[in-house]
Structure formats: C-alpha cells, structure tokens
Amino acid sequence: MSNPLQRLESIDRRILYAVLLIIVVVGLLVPIPLPLAVGPQARGVYEAIENADPGKIVIVSTLWSASTQGENSPQTRVILQHLMRKRLRFALIAFGDPQSTTLAQELAEELARENSYEYGKDWINWGFRADIAGTLKGLVKDINETIKTDSIKKRPLSEYPVMQGIHNVKDVGVIAEVSASGNYVSWLGLVVGSTNAPFCYAPTSVMAPELYTYLDSGQMKGMLFGIKGAAEYERLLGIRGFTTRAITPVSLSLVLLFVLIGLGNYGMYAAKKRDQKGANG
Amino acid sequence: MHSMNLQRLLGSAFPKASGSWIWISILLAALGCVVVFFALQALPGRARKFLIAAVTFLAGLFYAAEFFLPVDPKTDENFLTFAVPTVGNVINVLAAFTLGLGVFSLVRIHGTKVVKLREGWENSVVLLLGIVVMAVAGLEFEDTRFYRSLFRDVLNSFDAAMFATLAFFIISAAYRAFRVKSAEATLLMFAALIVMLGQIPIGQYLTHWLPEKGSYASLFRLDNISNWLLITVNAPAIRAIGFGLGIGGLAIAMRLWLSLERGAFFEAKADN
Question: What angle do CA A1, A16, A276 make, to 5 degrees?
C-alpha cells in the first residue's frame, strides 16, 4: 500500500475542482488587500490616453465575446472610464465576433449614463465588421466612406457632431484594441504606420507574452495584461472596483496551482524513492 | 488626374442609387450573380480554373498596386486610392456571405441528422431551434427584453460558463503534467513560476520591501525579474518565431494569389 505522501501524485480531480471552486468563491467574498505594482505596460496605456489630443477621436476596437468577458470586460470598462473622465470623444468598432459590438455598447451606455456622455455628440458606435483588413485599409483613407452609418441609429456618420472634423486615421488621437485574438497584427501592419496615434492593446493573459516584442519596439505604447492589467489601471485611475477585488481569487488560484505542482512533484519523488528502495531489496 | 478620371468613369457607369432604385439594383446584382454562377458551372474545368485564377490575381493585385504605385505628393494618393474604402466594403459583404455559408452548412448537416434520426439528433434539434429563435429575436425584436434576455441570460451565460470550466481543466492538467523530469523541464517550471508570481499581488508582496528601481536590490524584486524574463528572454524568441511565420505567410499568400496552391477545390474540379 502506498503511503500518503506518494498518494499526493494522484489526487482525485474532483477534489482539485472543489478546492478551486472554494478558493474562487472565498476570494471574491473576502478580498485580501495586497499591494499591486503598476507595470510600465499599463502605465503606457494610461499615458497615451492622458496625453491624447482632445481635438481628435479615440478608436476603441473590441474583439471579444462572453467567453473572455472575465478579462476583456474590465479592460474595456477602465479604458472607457478614463476616456470619459478626460472628456475625450470616442468611437467603438467591433471585429471577429458579433457579440463584441453589443457587449462593448452595453458597457459604454452604462458608463455614459454615469458620466453624462451623449450618444452622437461624445461617442458613437461604428458597429461590427466581418472583415478586418479591408475595413482597416478603408479607415486609413476615409472613415466616413468606409463605415458609412453608425450601428445604433443607422444614420450617416457625417450627421453626428462627434464625427465633425474626423476624416481619416490621421484624425485619430489613440487606438485602443481590447481583444481575445491576435488582431494586433492587422492594426500594426495596416494602420499604425499611417498615423501618429499611439496604439494600445488589451489582450487576455494567455496572449500577452507574445506582445512584448511590439512593446519593446515601440509600435505598441502600452498593454493591459489580462485582468491584472485592468486592476493596475483601476489603481492608476484611483478606483477600487470589481476588478481590484477580482485579483484576489486570481492570485489564490495561481497559488493553488503552485502548491499542486509542488505536491505532484513531491509525490513523484516519493514514489521514485520507494521504487529504488524496492529494487535494492 | 488619372484618379479623378477613373473615379468619374466608374461614377457614371454605376451612378448612386436612391429610393426604389436601391432595391432594383440589389435585385439586378443578385440576378447577375445567379447568371454568373450557372455560367461558371457550364464552363469546362480548365476554363473555369483559368477564370477563377484570373479573378483571384486581379483582386489581389488591387491592394498590391495601390500600396506600391507612387503617390501624388500633394494628395498622398495614387489613381487607385479613392477605391480603397469601396473595395473594403465589398470584402465586408463577401465576408458576411461566408457567415451565411457557415449557417447554411450547419443547417444542412444537422437538418439531415434530424431527418434521418441519427445518433444525437436531439442535440441537433436544440441547435437548429437555437439558431432560428436567436435569428428571429435579433432581426425582429432587437430592442425588446426577449432578445436581451436571450442574449445576456442565455447565450452570454453559456459562453462564459463554458470558458470558465477551462480553469478547472488547467488546474488538473498542470498538476498532472508539470513534472520535473529533466533539466529543461526544471528550467521551464521555474521560469513559469517566476513569471506568474511576478504577475500577481501575492507574488509581488513577497519582495515588496525591496526598492522598485534605482538600486541593485531592485533587480531581485519578483515583478522586475518577471518583466525581465518577458522582455529580454521571451520577446526575442517570439520575434524569431514571428519572422518565421511572416516569411511562411508571405509564401502562402503568394501561392494563393497566383493560384499555385495545389489540392484546392477547383484544382480537383479542373482535373475532372
């Protein structure tokens, strides 16, 4: 019979699931106040918006659905909060998943009510586009001709005060993309070289490591690293919202992961030692 | 000058439609598509392949020519630039058709499954009902509580719940698979642990008493080590992979553009 230490190598998965569930629920209910250092990536996004030209429009592009809303929704929220605090006009556009345009619009409408932002005057929704490359090439040349109408009232863009003086991507102050996909390649390849507007990206955590090369080259001015990036941004904005609280279960889950990896390896080591002892007689 | 001439020529050939002319234009375009479709079907395989290769080449040539041809320094445009937004809209319409094609394919496969009562046909009924109900709700009742409830309470909740189960799978998989069996695995595990610890407050708390920057001691802060690993070790590796992917992508794009890619649907058709 194997001893309890060796059994650490093969804990029943249902126990692991139960422990994770408890940790997430307890972490959400009892947030632990821990220091969160603001990294240069989140600071880059903050400074890009902070220094944006108020005469220009900010594009907030979204490519996410409910599946990644745990990370992408707080990222979109903090970016919109900052834009509204700075009274910058902005346009939403969505690619990839049609859910994206509705989810981002719901967030914008909620925040617009809190910040007295008027649709058509302070912000606009350009809607969902099935093709990324063709649309981005069009935005570089002529925004009104490419987008034509907004997605809420279906009226020509030129009729909205928010679009006054906005012709092409040179009239854009900041481009921020919140994404669960690798859409940054299209933005970097087709748009960023044609404008001085800083490009910021807010990906899910699993995608973030592949973007450091573009941060390093300066093509991306900042990045929100998953929900942790959103929590850092809340700190920069001086807000203690849901995202800051949600960092506790994320931290605890990762600690559980470390503990389990340690236990699994210790169990493996104990089993190996027992096998060696058995072989030696 | 050339740009204006071409724009004027196209403008007179396809004047802007308004009122009922829009619907007549759409109908004529749809009829034209049907005629072209049947004409393509009637063509012999080789001729069809040539025609499709020619259209593919011309379509790809537009963006390449627009990008490489010199521009007028005053306007920063060449004679093709004016058409970029329109071509972008045409591509969007084509991409939207592919969404329709996906729905058609789903309905065909699952419809057959239901009609023939194949194993799991009950799931197909749920899927087909879901498509119909969501489409009707989205098209006819977009501003109602009915649609919002379907979207927010059903679709979003299912979508989020399905993705959330990944966390459980990752915990279980990492526990079973992350074993220190070699020097490489040990290195990988320690790098992953440091990067992850550096990203979470609990990890940052362990070394928060060290200065953030400006001292050698700051080099030992977990968040700084994590950042160093991501920027100095990870980024060059990703860049190298990116170069490889870029060159591979360029080669594939050239092959597709010149219709050299073998094994495509039309290749098989042409050989018949």
Answer: 35
- Where in chain A are the domains? 4-30+246-279, 40-239
CA distance A192 to A198: 8
Are A68 and B163 an interchain contact pair (Cβ–Cβ within 8 Å)? Answer: yes
Helix (H), strand (E) at residue A104: helix A99-115
Q: What are the sequence ranges of the domains in chain B?
A: 178-272
Distance in Å from the first CA to the final CA of chain A: 17
Query: Mind listing the pLDDT tens digit for each residue in B17-30?
Result: 778 888 898 899 88
Burial A1-12 (b: 16+ CB within 10 A, else e): eeeeebebbebe
Q: What is the CATH number of domain A40-239?
A: 3.40.50
- According to DSSP, residue A91 is labeled E
Q: A265–B234: do the CB atoms touch at under 8 Å?
A: no
CB contacts < 8 A, A to B, total 169
Query: Which of B77, B92, B234 lies closest to A131 in CB terms?
Result: B92
Does the pLDDT value for residue B205 go beyond 90? no
pLDDT of residue A78: 97
